[in-house]
Amino acid sequence: MFCSIYGFFVILTWLPYYFETARGISGTSVAFVSSLVPWASIPGMLLFGWISDKLGKQRPVLLVMVPLAFISTISIVLFDQMWVLYVALILYGIVGKLSTNPVLIAVVANNAPRVGLATSFGIYNFIGMSASILAPYITGFITDVTGNLDMGFYLAGGLLLIAVIAVFFIDESGYKRVVDIEKIN
Predict the structure, then answer these.
(1) Quick check: helix, strand or coil at residue 43?
(2) Mean pLDDT rounded to a whole number for the chain
(3) The pLDDT value given to residue 171
(4) C-alpha of 148 from chain center
(5) How far apart are CA 177 and CA 182, in angstroms?
(6) Terminal alpha carbon distance of the chain
(7) Distance of alpha carbon 5 from its chain centroid, rounded?
(8) Based on C-alpha coordinates, what's the Rg of the chain?
(9) Cα–Cα distance between 39 and 181 in angstroms, integer?
(10) How open is the CA angle 130-103-177, to the nearest 5 degrees?
(11) Cβ-contact 86, 33 below 8 angstroms
């Protein structure tokens, strides 16, 4: 959760400034390009949430989404072509934080004790909000020290690599698919 939302808040808080300073995009163009992420997340969250429910597991879905979120995050700064930037932002919208959130919430719901569900979601939100607070500050600090915004995006990508490793530790041995639960009832 921390790794995913960290990258999202780097994109949310620094992307418009990055467009203006590093890419020379300004005005309404910044708004249009920045809005690609949330627009693309709508079908992404619905599709991957549905796939996760059909599979009855979140790990395989996250193992597709998180590496693609890594690729799209670093592609924002790695390539100079505008068409790559557009593709990267759309891809990030489809597989990034906004779209992984329903799947991550399902992970918490499937692993939390039923008597501590609200506490578990509170911890989940605490971890996420910690990232949302730290991401703008750390990226600003890195930018001040290096004189370059790119390293902030690379750090966000590096955290997504850590997230990929963490996904392998999700225990789904006791999960049931929605179809299997419906057959029991």
Answers:
(1) helix
(2) 91
(3) 85
(4) 23
(5) 9
(6) 33
(7) 6
(8) 17
(9) 33
(10) 145
(11) yes
Contact 153, 8 (CB under 8 A): no
Pair of tokens at residue 89: 């932002």
Element spanning 59, H or E = helix 59-78
Q: Cα–Cα distance between 88 and 175 in angstroms, integer?
A: 33
Percent of the chain with pLDDT over 90: 78
Residue 185 has pLDDT above 60, yes or no: no
pLDDT for residue 38: 93
Give 89's contacts (C-beta < 8 A, 6+ positions apart).
33, 34, 36, 37, 40, 72, 76
Where does the chain show beta strands of DSSP type E? none
User: For tokens 């790119």, what's the residue?
Assistant: 150
The string of pLDDT tens digits covering residues 116-132 is 999 999 999 999 999 99
Helices (H) and strands (E) in the chain, counts: 9, 0
- Residue 146, SS3 per DSSP: helix
What pLDDT sits at residue 183? Answer: 64
